[in-house]
Amino acid sequence: TTYSLLILPGDGIGPEVMAEVRKVIGWFEQNRGLSFDVSEDLVGGAAYDAHGVPLADATMAKAQQVDAVLLGAVGGPKYDNLDFSVKPERGLLRLRKEMDLFANLRPAQCFDALADFSSLKREVVAGLDILIVRELTSGVYFGEPRGIHDDGNNPENEGGRVGINTQRYTSGEIRRVARAAFELARKRGNRVCSMEKANVMESGILWREEVQWVHDNEYPDVELSHMYADNGAMQLVRNPRQFDVIVTDNLFGDLLSDAAAMLTGSLGMLPSASLGAPMANGRPKAMYEPVHGSAPDIAGQGKANPIACILSFAMALRYSYDLGAEADLLEKAVEKVLAEGVRTADLMGPQGGTPVSTAEMGDHVVKALSAL
Ligand code: NAI
Ligand code: MG
Protein backbone atom coordinates (compact mmCIF):
# COMPACT_ATOMS: atom_id res chain seq x y z
CA THR A 1 0.00 0.00 0.00
CA THR A 2 1.08 3.54 -0.72
CA TYR A 3 -0.39 6.17 1.56
CA SER A 4 -1.08 9.47 -0.17
CA LEU A 5 -0.60 12.72 1.70
CA LEU A 6 -1.00 16.32 0.58
CA ILE A 7 1.13 18.68 2.66
CA LEU A 8 0.04 22.33 2.82
CA PRO A 9 2.63 24.11 5.00
CA GLY A 10 1.02 27.55 4.67
CA ASP A 11 2.44 30.64 6.36
CA GLY A 12 4.60 31.73 9.28
CA ILE A 13 5.79 28.78 11.34
CA GLY A 14 3.76 26.37 9.17
CA PRO A 15 6.69 25.48 6.88
CA GLU A 16 9.06 25.26 9.88
CA VAL A 17 6.99 22.69 11.79
CA MET A 18 6.17 20.81 8.59
CA ALA A 19 9.86 20.23 7.90
CA GLU A 20 10.00 18.21 11.14
CA VAL A 21 7.03 16.09 10.08
CA ARG A 22 8.97 15.33 6.89
CA LYS A 23 11.73 13.85 9.07
CA VAL A 24 9.20 11.64 10.84
CA ILE A 25 7.73 10.47 7.54
CA GLY A 26 11.24 9.66 6.33
CA TRP A 27 11.85 7.62 9.47
CA PHE A 28 8.72 5.51 8.93
CA GLU A 29 9.70 4.92 5.29
CA GLN A 30 13.24 3.88 6.11
CA ASN A 31 12.58 1.89 9.26
CA ARG A 32 9.06 0.51 8.88
CA GLY A 33 8.97 -0.09 5.13
CA LEU A 34 5.98 2.20 4.71
CA SER A 35 5.49 4.00 1.43
CA PHE A 36 4.08 7.51 1.41
CA ASP A 37 3.18 9.41 -1.73
CA VAL A 38 3.74 12.95 -0.48
CA SER A 39 2.89 16.02 -2.52
CA GLU A 40 3.18 19.61 -1.38
CA ASP A 41 1.27 22.73 -2.33
CA LEU A 42 0.40 26.27 -1.25
CA VAL A 43 -2.36 27.53 1.01
CA GLY A 44 -3.18 30.82 2.73
CA GLY A 45 -1.00 33.86 2.23
CA ALA A 46 1.59 31.79 0.38
CA ALA A 47 -1.05 30.78 -2.18
CA TYR A 48 -2.32 34.36 -2.40
CA ASP A 49 1.20 35.61 -3.20
CA ALA A 50 1.58 33.03 -5.97
CA HIS A 51 -1.95 32.83 -7.42
CA GLY A 52 -3.95 35.75 -6.01
CA VAL A 53 -6.24 33.32 -4.16
CA PRO A 54 -5.75 31.59 -0.79
CA LEU A 55 -6.37 28.16 -2.35
CA ALA A 56 -5.97 27.41 -6.05
CA ASP A 57 -8.56 25.18 -7.77
CA ALA A 58 -5.85 22.67 -8.67
CA THR A 59 -4.87 22.38 -4.98
CA MET A 60 -8.51 21.91 -4.01
CA ALA A 61 -8.83 19.13 -6.58
CA LYS A 62 -5.71 17.41 -5.24
CA ALA A 63 -7.06 17.60 -1.69
CA GLN A 64 -10.18 15.73 -2.82
CA GLN A 65 -8.11 12.86 -4.18
CA VAL A 66 -5.59 12.09 -1.43
CA ASP A 67 -6.02 9.86 1.62
CA ALA A 68 -5.16 12.78 3.90
CA VAL A 69 -4.29 16.48 3.94
CA LEU A 70 -1.85 17.86 6.52
CA LEU A 71 -1.98 21.64 6.92
CA GLY A 72 0.49 23.83 8.85
CA ALA A 73 -1.07 27.23 9.54
CA VAL A 74 -2.27 30.23 7.58
CA GLY A 75 -2.26 33.98 8.05
CA GLY A 76 -0.01 36.77 9.22
CA PRO A 77 0.18 40.56 9.49
CA LYS A 78 1.14 40.88 5.83
CA TYR A 79 -2.35 39.65 4.87
CA ASP A 80 -4.46 41.29 7.57
CA ASN A 81 -5.80 44.03 5.29
CA LEU A 82 -6.71 41.83 2.33
CA ASP A 83 -10.28 41.71 1.09
CA PHE A 84 -12.39 39.19 3.04
CA SER A 85 -12.83 36.97 -0.02
CA VAL A 86 -9.08 36.30 -0.36
CA LYS A 87 -8.01 36.30 3.28
CA PRO A 88 -5.70 33.35 4.14
CA GLU A 89 -8.28 31.65 6.39
CA ARG A 90 -10.66 31.46 3.41
CA GLY A 91 -8.31 28.81 2.03
CA LEU A 92 -8.84 26.74 5.15
CA LEU A 93 -12.59 27.29 5.09
CA ARG A 94 -12.78 26.26 1.45
CA LEU A 95 -11.01 22.98 2.21
CA ARG A 96 -13.34 22.24 5.13
CA LYS A 97 -16.45 23.15 3.16
CA GLU A 98 -15.71 21.40 -0.13
CA MET A 99 -14.37 18.27 1.57
CA ASP A 100 -17.45 18.47 3.85
CA LEU A 101 -15.39 17.87 6.99
CA PHE A 102 -18.17 17.76 9.55
CA ALA A 103 -16.42 16.16 12.53
CA ASN A 104 -13.65 18.14 14.19
CA LEU A 105 -11.54 16.03 16.56
CA ARG A 106 -9.73 17.84 19.33
CA PRO A 107 -7.84 15.50 21.67
CA ALA A 108 -6.82 16.81 25.09
CA GLN A 109 -4.08 14.61 26.34
CA CYS A 110 -1.85 15.48 29.27
CA PHE A 111 1.69 14.22 29.02
CA ASP A 112 3.01 13.53 32.50
CA ALA A 113 6.18 15.56 31.91
CA LEU A 114 4.04 18.63 31.17
CA ALA A 115 1.35 18.21 33.84
CA ASP A 116 2.65 21.26 35.69
CA PHE A 117 1.90 23.40 32.60
CA SER A 118 -1.79 22.69 32.91
CA SER A 119 -4.16 25.40 34.08
CA LEU A 120 -5.28 22.83 36.65
CA LYS A 121 -3.49 20.95 39.42
CA ARG A 122 -1.35 17.98 38.43
CA GLU A 123 -3.53 15.54 40.40
CA VAL A 124 -6.60 16.60 38.38
CA VAL A 125 -5.01 16.22 34.92
CA ALA A 126 -2.26 13.57 35.22
CA GLY A 127 -2.98 10.88 32.65
CA LEU A 128 -5.83 12.87 31.05
CA ASP A 129 -6.79 11.55 27.61
CA ILE A 130 -10.10 12.81 26.25
CA LEU A 131 -11.38 13.53 22.76
CA ILE A 132 -13.83 16.29 21.90
CA VAL A 133 -15.77 15.78 18.68
CA ARG A 134 -17.21 19.09 17.50
CA GLU A 135 -19.75 19.38 14.69
CA LEU A 136 -18.03 21.68 12.20
CA THR A 137 -20.23 22.48 9.22
CA SER A 138 -23.59 23.55 10.62
CA GLY A 139 -25.24 25.16 13.63
CA VAL A 140 -25.38 28.80 14.60
CA TYR A 141 -22.26 29.83 12.64
CA PHE A 142 -24.02 28.95 9.38
CA GLY A 143 -27.78 28.92 10.02
CA GLU A 144 -30.17 31.18 8.10
CA PRO A 145 -31.54 33.76 8.58
CA ARG A 146 -28.53 35.74 9.68
CA GLY A 147 -27.47 39.35 9.45
CA ILE A 148 -27.71 42.77 11.01
CA HIS A 149 -30.86 44.76 10.27
CA ASP A 150 -31.96 48.22 11.20
CA ASP A 151 -35.65 48.20 12.01
CA GLY A 152 -35.76 51.99 12.07
CA ASN A 153 -36.83 52.27 15.68
CA ASN A 154 -35.11 54.25 18.37
CA PRO A 155 -32.17 52.12 19.56
CA GLU A 156 -32.66 53.37 23.11
CA ASN A 157 -36.19 51.97 23.20
CA GLU A 158 -37.84 49.05 21.44
CA GLY A 159 -35.59 48.47 18.45
CA GLY A 160 -32.80 49.92 16.38
CA ARG A 161 -30.26 47.50 15.01
CA VAL A 162 -30.87 43.76 15.39
CA GLY A 163 -28.16 41.10 15.09
CA ILE A 164 -29.46 37.67 14.08
CA ASN A 165 -27.92 34.20 13.91
CA THR A 166 -29.83 30.98 13.73
CA GLN A 167 -29.02 27.68 15.41
CA ARG A 168 -30.33 25.06 13.00
CA TYR A 169 -29.58 21.35 12.88
CA THR A 170 -31.13 18.56 10.85
CA SER A 171 -31.41 14.92 11.94
CA GLY A 172 -28.89 13.91 9.29
CA GLU A 173 -26.30 16.42 10.44
CA ILE A 174 -26.60 15.23 14.02
CA ARG A 175 -26.61 11.54 13.15
CA ARG A 176 -23.45 11.65 11.06
CA VAL A 177 -21.38 13.39 13.71
CA ALA A 178 -22.83 11.09 16.38
CA ARG A 179 -21.75 8.07 14.31
CA ALA A 180 -18.24 9.51 14.06
CA ALA A 181 -18.12 9.88 17.85
CA PHE A 182 -19.38 6.35 18.50
CA GLU A 183 -16.88 4.88 16.02
CA LEU A 184 -14.04 6.74 17.73
CA ALA A 185 -15.23 5.67 21.18
CA ARG A 186 -15.09 2.01 20.15
CA LYS A 187 -11.37 2.45 19.49
CA ARG A 188 -10.81 4.17 22.84
CA GLY A 189 -12.66 3.91 26.15
CA ASN A 190 -16.05 3.01 24.60
CA ARG A 191 -17.85 5.94 26.26
CA VAL A 192 -19.55 8.96 24.69
CA CYS A 193 -20.94 11.98 26.53
CA SER A 194 -23.20 14.16 24.36
CA MET A 195 -23.51 17.82 25.35
CA GLU A 196 -26.28 20.30 24.43
CA LYS A 197 -28.79 22.56 26.14
CA ALA A 198 -31.98 20.55 25.70
CA ASN A 199 -33.41 22.41 28.69
CA VAL A 200 -33.64 25.71 26.77
CA MET A 201 -33.09 24.96 23.04
CA GLU A 202 -35.22 23.02 20.55
CA SER A 203 -32.11 22.19 18.56
CA GLY A 204 -30.77 20.76 21.81
CA ILE A 205 -33.82 18.51 22.21
CA LEU A 206 -33.37 17.27 18.64
CA TRP A 207 -29.63 16.77 19.26
CA ARG A 208 -30.29 14.64 22.34
CA GLU A 209 -32.99 12.55 20.64
CA GLU A 210 -30.96 11.88 17.49
CA VAL A 211 -27.76 10.96 19.36
CA GLN A 212 -29.83 8.59 21.51
CA TRP A 213 -31.43 7.13 18.35
CA VAL A 214 -28.05 6.44 16.73
CA HIS A 215 -26.88 4.84 19.97
CA ASP A 216 -29.93 2.60 20.41
CA ASN A 217 -30.05 1.47 16.79
CA GLU A 218 -26.40 1.25 15.80
CA TYR A 219 -24.07 1.48 18.80
CA PRO A 220 -25.82 -0.09 21.82
CA ASP A 221 -22.45 -1.47 22.96
CA VAL A 222 -21.06 2.04 23.58
CA GLU A 223 -21.90 3.72 26.89
CA LEU A 224 -23.81 6.96 26.21
CA SER A 225 -24.56 9.77 28.63
CA HIS A 226 -26.05 13.24 28.10
CA MET A 227 -25.03 16.44 29.84
CA TYR A 228 -26.08 20.08 29.59
CA ALA A 229 -23.18 21.94 28.00
CA ASP A 230 -22.86 24.49 30.81
CA ASN A 231 -22.51 21.69 33.34
CA GLY A 232 -20.09 20.08 30.87
CA ALA A 233 -17.89 23.18 31.02
CA MET A 234 -17.90 22.92 34.80
CA GLN A 235 -17.14 19.20 34.80
CA LEU A 236 -14.27 19.72 32.32
CA VAL A 237 -12.37 21.80 34.85
CA ARG A 238 -13.61 19.98 37.96
CA ASN A 239 -12.86 16.40 36.92
CA PRO A 240 -11.91 16.12 33.23
CA ARG A 241 -10.81 12.48 33.49
CA GLN A 242 -14.46 11.37 33.86
CA PHE A 243 -14.81 11.75 30.07
CA ASP A 244 -13.67 9.63 27.14
CA VAL A 245 -15.32 11.04 23.98
CA ILE A 246 -17.43 14.21 24.13
CA VAL A 247 -19.68 14.99 21.15
CA THR A 248 -21.25 18.41 20.80
CA ASP A 249 -22.39 21.06 18.33
CA ASN A 250 -20.34 23.69 16.53
CA LEU A 251 -20.71 26.55 19.04
CA PHE A 252 -20.42 24.57 22.27
CA GLY A 253 -17.59 22.54 20.72
CA ASP A 254 -15.68 25.69 19.87
CA LEU A 255 -15.79 26.84 23.50
CA LEU A 256 -15.38 23.47 25.19
CA SER A 257 -12.42 22.41 23.03
CA ASP A 258 -10.57 25.67 23.71
CA ALA A 259 -11.17 25.23 27.44
CA ALA A 260 -10.01 21.61 27.25
CA ALA A 261 -6.86 22.73 25.42
CA MET A 262 -5.74 24.66 28.47
CA LEU A 263 -5.93 21.49 30.56
CA THR A 264 -2.91 20.20 28.67
CA GLY A 265 -0.46 23.11 28.61
CA SER A 266 1.03 24.73 25.52
CA LEU A 267 -0.67 25.58 22.26
CA GLY A 268 2.44 24.12 20.62
CA MET A 269 1.36 20.62 21.70
CA LEU A 270 -2.20 20.41 20.37
CA PRO A 271 -3.15 18.42 17.25
CA SER A 272 -6.53 18.23 15.51
CA ALA A 273 -8.30 16.36 12.76
CA SER A 274 -11.35 17.14 10.68
CA LEU A 275 -13.14 14.17 9.18
CA GLY A 276 -15.81 13.84 6.52
CA ALA A 277 -17.76 11.04 4.88
CA PRO A 278 -16.10 7.72 4.05
CA MET A 279 -14.31 7.54 0.69
CA ALA A 280 -14.24 4.55 -1.65
CA ASN A 281 -11.55 2.90 0.49
CA GLY A 282 -13.80 3.13 3.55
CA ARG A 283 -11.65 5.69 5.34
CA PRO A 284 -13.00 9.20 5.94
CA LYS A 285 -12.00 12.27 3.97
CA ALA A 286 -9.63 14.00 6.32
CA MET A 287 -7.55 17.04 7.04
CA TYR A 288 -5.11 17.23 9.94
CA GLU A 289 -3.68 20.42 11.41
CA PRO A 290 -2.14 21.78 14.59
CA VAL A 291 -4.52 23.93 16.64
CA HIS A 292 -2.08 26.84 16.72
CA GLY A 293 -1.81 29.57 14.09
CA SER A 294 1.11 30.91 12.09
CA ALA A 295 2.73 32.56 15.15
CA PRO A 296 4.22 35.58 13.33
CA ASP A 297 5.91 36.67 16.58
CA ILE A 298 8.33 33.73 16.43
CA ALA A 299 8.25 32.83 12.71
CA GLY A 300 11.62 32.41 11.03
CA GLN A 301 13.50 32.10 14.31
CA GLY A 302 13.58 28.33 14.74
CA LYS A 303 11.65 28.62 18.00
CA ALA A 304 8.38 26.94 17.06
CA ASN A 305 7.39 23.72 18.75
CA PRO A 306 6.78 21.13 16.00
CA ILE A 307 5.02 18.63 18.30
CA ALA A 308 1.45 19.81 17.53
CA CYS A 309 2.07 19.19 13.85
CA ILE A 310 3.87 15.89 14.51
CA LEU A 311 0.95 14.69 16.67
CA SER A 312 -1.44 15.77 13.90
CA PHE A 313 0.45 13.43 11.60
CA ALA A 314 0.09 10.71 14.27
CA MET A 315 -3.68 11.23 14.02
CA ALA A 316 -3.41 10.79 10.24
CA LEU A 317 -1.58 7.51 10.79
CA ARG A 318 -4.41 6.35 13.05
CA TYR A 319 -7.52 7.62 11.26
CA SER A 320 -6.57 7.85 7.56
CA TYR A 321 -4.08 5.02 7.13
CA ASP A 322 -5.32 2.64 9.83
CA LEU A 323 -1.77 2.47 11.22
CA GLY A 324 -2.71 2.52 14.91
CA ALA A 325 0.50 0.84 16.11
CA GLU A 326 2.61 3.40 14.25
CA ALA A 327 0.51 6.23 15.69
CA ASP A 328 1.03 4.84 19.20
CA LEU A 329 4.76 4.59 18.55
CA LEU A 330 4.99 8.20 17.41
CA GLU A 331 3.06 9.41 20.46
CA LYS A 332 5.34 7.36 22.70
CA ALA A 333 8.38 8.93 21.05
CA VAL A 334 7.02 12.40 21.82
CA GLU A 335 6.32 11.34 25.40
CA LYS A 336 9.87 9.98 25.74
CA VAL A 337 11.46 13.18 24.45
CA LEU A 338 9.42 15.24 26.91
CA ALA A 339 10.24 12.88 29.78
CA GLU A 340 13.93 13.36 28.98
CA GLY A 341 13.44 17.08 29.58
CA VAL A 342 13.87 18.23 25.99
CA ARG A 343 11.95 21.50 25.64
CA THR A 344 11.28 24.10 22.98
CA ALA A 345 11.01 27.66 24.31
CA ASP A 346 7.22 27.51 24.76
CA LEU A 347 7.67 24.59 27.18
CA MET A 348 10.23 26.24 29.44
CA GLY A 349 8.97 26.55 32.99
CA PRO A 350 9.79 29.40 35.36
CA GLN A 351 12.90 27.49 36.47
CA GLY A 352 14.33 28.08 32.98
CA GLY A 353 16.89 25.99 31.14
CA THR A 354 18.15 25.90 27.58
CA PRO A 355 15.47 25.44 24.94
CA VAL A 356 16.07 23.38 21.81
CA SER A 357 15.25 24.67 18.33
CA THR A 358 12.42 23.47 16.09
CA ALA A 359 14.83 21.30 14.10
CA GLU A 360 16.47 19.88 17.22
CA MET A 361 13.08 18.89 18.62
CA GLY A 362 12.33 17.05 15.37
CA ASP A 363 15.70 15.29 15.56
CA HIS A 364 15.00 14.21 19.14
CA VAL A 365 11.64 12.73 18.16
CA VAL A 366 13.24 10.77 15.33
CA LYS A 367 15.98 9.53 17.66
CA ALA A 368 13.36 8.45 20.19
CA LEU A 369 11.50 6.54 17.45
CA SER A 370 14.68 4.55 16.79
CA ALA A 371 15.26 3.97 20.51
CA LEU A 372 11.77 2.60 21.25
P1 NAI B 1 -1.06 31.74 17.15
O1 NAI B 1 -1.53 30.38 17.52
O2 NAI B 1 -0.39 31.86 15.85
O3 NAI B 1 -0.08 32.27 18.30
C1 NAI B 1 -0.48 32.50 19.65
C2 NAI B 1 0.76 32.48 20.57
O4 NAI B 1 1.19 31.12 20.73
C3 NAI B 1 1.93 33.24 20.00
O5 NAI B 1 2.62 33.87 21.04
C4 NAI B 1 2.77 32.17 19.37
O6 NAI B 1 4.16 32.48 19.34
C5 NAI B 1 2.52 30.97 20.27
N1 NAI B 1 2.60 29.70 19.51
C6 NAI B 1 1.69 29.24 18.61
N2 NAI B 1 2.11 28.09 18.09
C7 NAI B 1 3.30 27.80 18.65
C8 NAI B 1 4.23 26.73 18.49
N3 NAI B 1 4.00 25.71 17.65
N4 NAI B 1 5.35 26.76 19.23
C9 NAI B 1 5.59 27.77 20.09
N5 NAI B 1 4.76 28.79 20.28
C10 NAI B 1 3.62 28.82 19.57
O7 NAI B 1 -2.35 32.69 17.21
P2 NAI B 1 -2.45 34.28 16.87
O8 NAI B 1 -1.21 34.97 17.32
O9 NAI B 1 -3.74 34.69 17.42
O10 NAI B 1 -2.58 34.35 15.29
C11 NAI B 1 -1.45 34.55 14.43
C12 NAI B 1 -1.88 34.35 13.00
O11 NAI B 1 -2.28 32.99 12.80
C13 NAI B 1 -3.09 35.19 12.59
O12 NAI B 1 -2.90 35.62 11.26
C14 NAI B 1 -4.25 34.25 12.69
O13 NAI B 1 -5.29 34.59 11.82
C15 NAI B 1 -3.60 32.94 12.28
N6 NAI B 1 -4.27 31.74 12.81
C16 NAI B 1 -4.33 30.66 11.97
C17 NAI B 1 -4.87 29.48 12.40
C18 NAI B 1 -4.83 28.33 11.46
O14 NAI B 1 -4.12 28.33 10.48
N7 NAI B 1 -5.56 27.27 11.73
C19 NAI B 1 -5.42 29.32 13.75
C20 NAI B 1 -5.24 30.50 14.59
C21 NAI B 1 -4.69 31.65 14.10
MG1 MG C 1 -12.03 28.54 18.85
TrEMBL record:
Q: Which Pfam families match?
A: Iso_dh
Q: Where is the Isopropylmalate dehydrogenase-like domain?
A: 4-365
Write the Enzyme Commission number(s) for this entry: 1.1.1.85
Q: Which cofactor does it need?
A: Mg(2+); Mn(2+)
List, alphabetically, the SMART domains matched: Iso_dh
Q: What is catalysed by this protein?
A: (2R,3S)-3-isopropylmalate + NAD(+) = 4-methyl-2-oxopentanoate + CO2 + NADH
Instruction: Quote the cofactor binding remark.
Output: Binds 1 Mg(2+) or Mn(2+) ion per subunit.
Pathways involved: Amino-acid biosynthesis; L-leucine biosynthesis; L-leucine from 3-methyl-2-oxobutanoate: step 3/4
EC top class, as a word: oxidoreductase
Q: Site positions for Important for catalysis, renumbered to this chain?
A: Y141, K197
Print the keywords alphabetically: Amino-acid biosynthesis, Branched-chain amino acid biosynthesis, Cytoplasm, Leucine biosynthesis, Magnesium, Manganese, Metal-binding, NAD, Oxidoreductase
Quick one: which residues bind substrate?
R96, R106, R134, D230
Regions crossing the membrane: none
Q: Which GO terms describe its cellular component?
A: cytosol
GO terms (BP aspect): L-leucine biosynthetic process
Residues annotated for NAD(+) binding in this entry: 76-89, 293-305
Name the source's superkingdom: Bacteria
**What does the annotation say about its assembly with partners?**
Homodimer.
Similarity annotation? Belongs to the isocitrate and isopropylmalate dehydrogenases family. LeuB type 1 subfamily.
Please report the name of this protein according to its UniProt entry: 3-isopropylmalate dehydrogenase
| Organism expressing this protein natively | Paracoccus halophilus
UniProt lineage: Bacteria, Pseudomonadati, Pseudomonadota, Alphaproteobacteria, Rhodobacterales
